Amino acid sequence: MELIAVTIDGVTIGIIYAFVALGLTLIFSVFDTINFAHGTLYMLGSYLTWYFCVQKGLNFFVSCIIAVLILAMIGVVMERFLFRPLPRGHLPGLMLSTGVALALPVIVLVVFGAKEKGIPSVFPGTVDMLGIRISLERLALVPVCLVLVFGLIAFLRYTGVGKTIRAVSQDSEAAELYGINIGYVSGVTFAIGTALAGLAGALVAPLFMLTAEMGGAVIIKCFIIIIVGGLGSMAGAITAGILIGIVENVCTVWMGSEIAQMALFGCLILILLVKPRGLFGDT
Amino acid sequence: MSFVNSRRVGVFSGIVFLSISLWLCASVPCLAEEVQTLLIGDAPPLTGAAAAWGIAMTRGNDPLAEKINNQGGITVGGKRYMIKIDRYDTKGTAHGGASAANYFASKGIKFACFWLSAPGAAGQPICEENKIVTTHGGYTRTLRMAKYSFGCVQTPAEFIHGLLRYLGQAHPEIKKIGMIAANDESGKSTDQTWQKFAPMYGIKYLGGEFYPPRTTMDYVPMLKRLLALNPDALTTDAAPPAEVALIVKQVRQLGYKGMLMNETQTDANTLNDIAGQYAEGFLTQGDVDPNSPVAPPQMKQFYKAFISKYPPEEWKLLSIMAWDNLSILLQAIQAANTLDPTTVAELMPKLTYDTNWGPVKFGGEKTYDGWNHQLLIPVWLTQMRGGKSVFLKMVGHD
């Protein structure tokens, strides 16, 4: 019974990791570069939600939507004015996003103040199921995230814009030859990627506390997830996110947090040895 | 003609010479009165995961320096000094602490405030070698065994006795206590303190559960490990205020009904913001509401100064600590009437200081094997009730 409880806890956290990693892998699939600023965009999503919910007194869900829209706009601006002018290749984007990742927390500290923030519980209370006690807030995240993840998958698979994103991610030159506007697709992809990071940040805001540095820990886990899942793979990001959440929780409960951290990196090394391109990566 | 000119030149030169001499004579006393600058090193974390604390610290010592300078500075050895804080961002790391100490030494700074255990411990050998008198805002015991170092933050070693005596009287049902703490210098040192002192009061210490510091947001797995041991009370020692609040929220959401406490100062603002209703009954020390009648007058004054400059919701006990740590250094310098660090360091344990908590002294010989550089602030036990921090009792040191 305890194993089930710990696994459910792991799934709730893992699905959040997966959500952030999805945005990261989506941007990677089109830009061929790792956006190091992704964790700080997650943080920004939390802060904006806090601002509208606590400071402006708006409903939590309305605040989430506003935060996500702002993040999507930030994504468009970042893509158009920061990433698009850069020369192609991994390194320029990597360096630029590292700079953004370092600068954004400082800007947030200046704008929102130094004190850590919190959002009151949206679903207070716990649920008792078969002797297992789980916070309602965490449990509510699972269906919300699942709906959003499947919605994203459906968007990418069945809509015109989604199909162009997939086409560009597979072969941008061929897509351009077919008349796809690469600039437009890049902008949309970046907007979706940053919106996903912002949404994840918004959803966890009532669960955790908000600090300007909260993105740092998440981005490390996202890197592990996209490497384990396979760079650029949506299914890989979701599977690996949930897997990492479960491994982390189970290992912490049975072996302590120090061992759990080692186990995460152990997973990464093992996957790299057995399947160097990740669980769902192209062979 | 040339004679006349020479004469005129001679007269002119004489006048100029006389004027310069008069000016020099007149300005000698001015030079003696010239206000000089006393540089005080400050090593808080201003960026990185601990930046929020560092910023709160600057909001303590900046207003004090400003207040002193507005009053004309301090007089030492017949000279007037304006206070200038020379700040070095340690990022909360050991590497940053060592760099800060080297920076202070290279600038000839002789008095400094260090914050957090790891930067303080890394900077300490350099400060000691360069005779820099340092007030430390870190927990670790290694900071507490040196000549020029002064422990200015209360650690569990200082207030555990008072707390355990209080629990024995008010909550005799508490027999088993577990701890959740950051996996760092402070957490490990607090764990040792509990191991050493809890049995003296008939309490079984169940051990500590340690989490990766400054990055952990999900404490549930660690808490589950602790709760499996059925503790009567849980302490969140060595965790900073926001982490404490999040732990409180998550452990209550797991259904834990026992006592929750923390002896390392947290604040009602943070508890309310992050833990909300789950903070009810939380026992802590030092979280005195500056607006309450029991608050010391100095604290009330500082709070007034604080809210005139910063938003009231940003009020943190760390700012009080920062004000006091700088104030103690300056009071000692003035009492010693010299800037010689050795003389000041030798005098410091003998003085009584005016702080936000009222008059306090250094001590700690019993706890730290003869080292008496630990500031002993009375332990103000408080409890969260109805969203407010309510003063319970003042307990003394061992």
Outline the fold blueprint.
The complex is a heterodimer of chains A (283) and B (398).
Chain A: H1 2-31, H2 38-55, H3 60-83, H4 90-112, E1 126-129, E2 132-135, H5 136-158, H6 160-170, H7 172-177, H8 182-204, H9 214-229, H10 234-255, H11 257-274
Antiparallel strand pairs in A: 1-2
Chain B: H1 2-33, E1 36-43, H2 51-70, E2 74-76, E3 79-87, H3 94-106, E4 111-115, H4 117-129, E5 133-137, E6 149-151, H5 156-170, E7 176-182, H6 185-197, E8 204-211, H7 220-227, E9 233-235, H8 241-253, E10 259-262, H9 268-275, E11 283-285, H10 297-309, H11 317-336, H12 341-347, E12 352-355, E13 358-363, E14 374-376, E15 379-385, E16 388-395
Parallel strand pairs in B: 1-3, 1-4, 4-5, 5-6, 7-8, 7-9, 9-10, 10-11
Antiparallel strand pairs in B: 2-3, 11-15, 12-13, 13-14, 15-16
Structural description of this entry:
The complex is a heterodimer of chains A (283) and B (398). Helix content of chain A is 76%, strand content 3%. Chain A contains 11 helices and 2 strands. Chain A has helices spanning 2-31, 38-55, 60-83, 90-112, 136-158, 160-170, 172-177, 182-204, 214-229, 234-255, 257-274, and strands at residues 126-129, 132-135. In chain A, a hairpin with a 2-residue loop joins strand 1 (126-129) and strand 2. In chain A, helix 9 (214-229) runs parallel beside helix 11 (257-274). The longest helix of chain A has 30 residues, at 2-31. With 398 residues, chain B is of the alpha/beta class. Helices cover 44% and strands 22% of the residues of chain B. Chain B contains 12 helices and 16 strands. In chain B, strands 8-7-9-10-11-15-16 form a 7-stranded mixed beta sheet, with helices on both faces. Chain B has a 6-stranded mixed beta sheet with strand order 2-3-1-4-5-6, sandwiched between helices. The A-B interface holds A 5-6, 9, 13, 105-106, 109, 113-118, 120-121, 124, 126, 133, 135, 137, 204, 207-209, 211-214, 216-217, 248-249, 252-253, 256-258, 260-261 and B 47-49, 51-52, 55-56, 183, 209-212, 214-218, 220-222, 224-225, 241-243, 245-246, 249-250, 253-255, 269-270, 273-277, 311, 313-314, 316.
